[in-house]
């Protein structure tokens, strides 16, 4: 019998994913991904969570948080907010950004496959494809187990990933480009390059990202590669079950309550709402 290759031994999942240069350039990363409407996205996150929690979440943990824009917006709304990222430059940048916004975000450096919280939260977030950094099933399950331990009973984890349509359209390797200017700094992003590969067995893609930056009369180029795991809906559902601590309770095709995951026109992201059971499963023979 053969098994899908897993890279679990010796090398932690954190060692395997990269983009370290881009995540290290936290301010430029923040500008590059500032095309999102964080207020609208947080409206969705709060509503989707409340549907399953039965009340508005009072606390949030943003995992792989980067600049922590969602944690900052939710802290502004009065939630008790925490964030976690393994890149020290992101932790510094996000903490300074929270301070400048006049809110408190308890931002820690750490790995999302091995962390614990002093106090449980109602809502955990893993957004913008950050779950793709979890390359193996073991890493995904560890992360889900840590999240389940960190959630209050009935609490939810919301994961945002690329829509699986992208995975199955493997002849058309994802290649995308956009540009954002903020406070006089211009960042052009090229996500993916024609030479990038996708291994159909491990579902791990090698993604080349280039940021071209014009800042204070100076131009610089940051080019970086990362391994990124691609997921299907069935797989994410199975991994949640295998974690023993979360169940998939809703799927959306974007950070939008009105877009169904199977909407052939509108769905462009895979958004999973995973819930920790309100009553822990009974032990066998209990
Ligand atoms: C694509 S960025 C997303 C940042 C943020 N969620 C957003 O919406 O902009 C991915 C982030 O995940 C962090 N990261 C990657 N693997 C991680 C891990 N195993 N544990 C914690 N953070 C991780 C990186 O340092 C980076 O800041």
From TrEMBL:
CDD domains: AdoMet_MTases (cd02440). Gene3D superfamilies: S-adenosyl-L-methionine-dependent methyltransferases (2.20.25.110), Vaccinia Virus protein VP39 (3.40.50.150). It comes from Skermanella stibiiresistens SB22. SUPFAM superfamilies: S-adenosyl-L-methionine-dependent methyltransferases. This is Methyltransferase domain-containing protein. It comes from the Bacteria. InterPro entries: Methyltransf_25, SAM-dependent_MTases_sf. Residues 60-155 form the Methyltransferase domain.
């Amino acid at each position: 019998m053969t098994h899908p290759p897993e890279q679990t031994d010796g090398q932690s999942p954190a060692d395997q994913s990269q983009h370290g240069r881009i995540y290290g350039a936290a301010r430029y990363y923040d500008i590059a991904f500032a095309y999102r409407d964080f207020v609208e996205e947080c409206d969705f996150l709060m509503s989707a969570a409340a549907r399953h929690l039965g009340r508005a979440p009072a606390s949030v943990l943003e995992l792989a948080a980067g600049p922590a824009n969602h944690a900052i917006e939710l802290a502004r709304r009065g939630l008790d907010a925490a964030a976690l990222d393994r890149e020290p430059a992101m932790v510094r940048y996000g903490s300074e950004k929270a301070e400048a916004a006049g809110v408190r975000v308890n931002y820690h450096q750490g790995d999302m496959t091995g962390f614990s919280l002093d106090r449980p939260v109602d809502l955990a977030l893993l957004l913008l494809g950050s779950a793709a950094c979890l390359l193996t099933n073991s890493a995904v399950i560890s992360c889900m187990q840590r999240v389940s331990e960190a959630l209050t009973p009935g609490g939810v984890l919301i994961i945002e990933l690329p829509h699986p349509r992208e995975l199955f359209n493997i002849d058309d390797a994802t290649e995308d480009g956009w540009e954002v200017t903020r406070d006089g700094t211009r960042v052009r992003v090229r996500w993916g390059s024609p030479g990038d590969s996708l291994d159909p067995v491990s579902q791990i893609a090698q993604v080349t990202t280039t940021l071209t930056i014009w800042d204070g009369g100076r131009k610089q180029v940051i080019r970086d590669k990362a391994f990124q795991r691609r997921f299907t809906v069935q797989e994410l559902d199975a991994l949640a079950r295998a974690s023993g601590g979360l169940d998939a309770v809703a799927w959306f095709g974007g950070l939008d309550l009105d877009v169904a995951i199977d909407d052939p026109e509108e769905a462009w992201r895979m958004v999973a709402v995973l819930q920790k059971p309100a009553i822990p499963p009974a032990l066998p023979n209990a």
